Amino acid sequence: MENNDVVIRAYQAADKDELSSIWYRASLKAHNFLGEETILEQRKLIEDVYLEKAENWVACVDGKPIGFVGLLDNFIGGLFIDPDVQGRGAGRALVAHARALKGELSLEVYTANTGACAFYNALGFREISRRPEDDHGLPFENMLMRLDA
Fold this sequence. Notes:
By secondary structure, this protein is of the alpha+beta class. 37% of the residues lie in helices and 30% in strands. The chain is built from four helices and seven strands. It has a seven-stranded mixed β-sheet with strand order 1-2-3-4-5-7-6, sandwiched between helices. It is globular. The chain starts with 6 loop residues before the first strand and ends with a strand. The model has no long low-confidence stretch (mean pLDDT 93).
């Protein structure tokens, strides 16, 4: 798979189970510091709130979802790629799609997720600020990053 093999389309309700699975497996890999119990609790929010309420775009190869980006206006609420195909261009394609739609983008990322921090830095995002807790009040530092239009 290369970037030009990726087709990006709007989220459909039928994608929910597959994207929840991608989110879960990618989160176990990237956010293992949260612990599996916390990730399982957050999965319910992904399924019931974020996939239903955010503007989600799905990256597919041969018609099969391999990742997605969730947008809240120009804020990337989440970007998750199937761990089996990470590093092959789908994440870059989703960010490029979001940027084409929204212009300037911002996001928050756990600083302990060094792979994601490096990925966003490589795409030109720059650090704006940090906070010591995540959205759930857990003691995991988050970094706000921005990519100018």
